[in-house]
Amino acid sequence: MTKSKEDHGIAIGIDLGTTYSCVAVWQEHHCRVEIIHNDQGNNTTSFVAFTDDERLLKIRLLPIQRTMSLDKMLWPFKVVAGTHDKPMIILNYKDEEKHFCAEEISSIVLAKMWEIAEAFLEKRVKNAVIAGLNVMRIINEPTPAAIAYGLNRRTNNCVGERKIFIFDLGGGTFDVSLLTHKGKIFQVKVTTGNGHLGGEEIDNRMVDYFVKEIKRKKKVDISGNPKALRRLKTACERSKRILSCAVATHIETYALSDGIDFCSSTTRARFEEINMDLFKECMETVDKCLTDAEMDKSSVHDVILVGGSSRIPKVQELLPGFFNGKDLVYDNQSSVGIKVYEDERTRASDNNLLGSFSLSGLPPAPHGHPFDVCFAIDENGILSVSAKEKTTGNSNKIVITNERERFIQMENALENGNLSSKLCSEDKEKISSAITKATKLLEGENQNGEIDVFENLFERVIGKFDF
C-alpha cells in the first residue's frame, strides 16, 4: 500500500453494506483485523447525497436496494428504465440532470473507503477489492467474519474440522452461512438468506404501526406525506436502537404534519410483537440452511452474529434457544450489555437476574475485547457493579437494591409466556411503562423528593403480580 515496493503485499478489505460500509486492515503487531473509522469516528453510511454545490457521503438518504413498491414514493430521485431495461437514477446535481446506474453510486462509496484507509495508514493504497486498485481476491462474506473473530486460531477444543455458523442480519439484507475450517482452509458449505429482510424492514413495520396510531389519535393520515414519513422513520429507528438496551422508550416528532406534534411510548414487548413474524422467519432460514447442509445443529461448534440488527434482544434470545443454549460470538459493537445475576447455576440465564446496564462508546473490536467489571458491597450490604473500558475511560454502574430486584422480577414475569398470555397488549404496555418510570426514579438523584410518586407507581405495578 506504500509507494515503495516493500509494502506491495499489504492490502485493505472493504465491506460494502446496505446501510453502513467499512474498511479494515490487518495489524500484524496486534495479530487482528482493525476496523478503520472515518474522520467523524464512525462507520460510513452507504448513502450518497447530491446538493447544488457538492456531493456528500455523510447524509443518510433512503437506500435504493429496497423493494420499489414500498419505498419509491419516499425517494428524492427518479428511477427509469435505461438501455437493456437497466434501472437508471435521475437527479439534479449542480443545476444539471445526471443519470447514474447503481454501480456508479456504489463506486462513490467504495472510493470513499479507499480515501479513509489512506488517511489512516498515511500511505498510498494500491491493493484492495475495488475498481481502480489491484483486485487481489474477492472472498465470500462468512470467511472474513470467521477470521475477524479469531476462529482460525480457536482449535483447542476441536479435533479435525470445525463447523461455524454465520448469522448476518444487517440493515437491508439477511444472510446465513455454514462454513467449515480445518488447518488454514475455510470452506463455505451453504449460504442462504433474504435480500429484503433487515433493519429497514423492521423500521418500516414500526412506521406502519405509528401511522395507524396517528390516524386513530390525531385523525390525520400521513401515509401520503413523504417528509413526515421520513421524520417518523428516523424516530422509529432511534427507538429501535434504544429498545436493545431498555424495556421502554418514547417516540417524539414535533410539527410532524400540518403543525401536529406526535408523542407516543412503546415497549420492547410491543416492538417484538410487531416484528415477531420477521424474527420467526429468521429462525426458519437458519433451519433451512442446516437442512440444506444435511447437518444437525448440535454439530455446530461456533455461532457468529454479524450486522447491527443482530443486536436486537429477541434475536439474541431466539438464536441460542435454537442451538440449545450455545454461546454466541458477537460482532464488532460499540456497546455491551452487562447483566448481574445471583445463584450458582452453570448457565447464567438459569440464575436470578438482579439488574442490567449498558457500557457504550467502546472502540469496535473483535470478540473478547477486555474491560474491567468491579463488584462492591458497602457497609449496609448494598451491592454496586461498575464497568470501565480502559482505552476510552468510559464507565457506567448500577446499584442493586431490593426495590430494583423486585422490578427486575416483574419485568421477567412480564416477558414470561404464561403470564404474558393472560394479559392484553394494552395491559402489558401499561405495566412495562410503569416499571420503566419507577426504575428511573430509583436511578435518579432526587429519590426522596419523589417518594410519593414512586410508591404510587410501585403499588400500580405490584397489583398486577403475585409476589
What does this structure look like?
This protein is of the alpha+beta class. It has 4 domains: 11-63 and 101-138, ATPase, nucleotide binding domain (Nucleotidyltransferase, domain 5, 2-Layer Sandwich), CATH 3.30.420.40; 141-325, Alpha-Beta Complex (Actin, Chain A, domain 4), CATH 3.90.640.10; 332-401, Substrate Binding Domain Of DNAk, Chain A, domain 1; 404-463, no CATH class. The chain contains 11 helices and 23 strands. The chain has a 5-stranded mixed β-sheet with strand order 14-13-12-17-18, sandwiched between helices. Strand 2 (20-27) and strand 3 (32-36) form a beta hairpin. Helix 4 packs antiparallel against helix 6. GO terms for molecular function: ATP binding; ATP hydrolysis activity; ATP-dependent protein folding chaperone; heat shock protein binding; protein folding chaperone. One of its GO terms (biological process) is protein refolding.
